[in-house]
Design a protein that fits this description.
The chain is of the alpha+beta class. The chain has helices spanning 4-7, 91-105, 108-123, and strands spanning 13-23, 26-36, 39-43, 56-63, 66-77, 81-89. Helix 2 runs antiparallel to helix 3 (108-123). The protein starts with a helix and ends with a helix.
Length: 127
């Protein structure tokens, strides 16, 4: 049986920040637990309502002028955390996330491995 660590191709980085989740005009603030190019994990807000069949956008403000933006879909919900899969991310956000991975892992080659995996999945999305 395949474990989650065997399935996980993207390096997750623990990062304490706020996340703004927006779905159909409804804004929910949540605390980020970790982030990767594949998605985010947030602490379950006290009140929220997300539909799994409708896209959601997330913004993570790293500074006043630096924001990571992703289109995500809710794939896991529990009393402790919500997991969102990244369905789309712009190039500027990829660059910011790559730098975030480098800084937090203190390993520049980790970010290169993550980007190589992203490129591989884009070429062969059905593997």
């Amino acid at each position: 049986m395949e474990t989650s660590s065997e399935r996980r191709h993207f390096t997750r980085v623990g990062f304490a920040a706020g996340a703004e989740l927006i779905q159909e005009g409804n804004l929910v603030h949540a605390d980020l637990i970790d982030i990767s190019l594949n998605g985010i994990l947030v602490r379950t807000p006290e009140q929220y309502e997300f539909r799994t069949d409708i896209p959601c956008s997330v913004q993570i403000h790293l500074s006043d002028d630096t924001v990571i933006q992703m289109q995500v879909a809710l794939v896991h919900s529990g009393s402790q955390c919500l997991g969102f899969h990244c369905t789309s991310i712009d190039m500027d956000s990829i660059i910011h996330l790559r730098r975030l991975i480098e800084i937090n892992l203190n390993d520049p080659s980790a970010a290169e491995r993550v980007l190589a995996e992203l490129v591989r999945q884009e070429k062969y999305p059905y593997e």
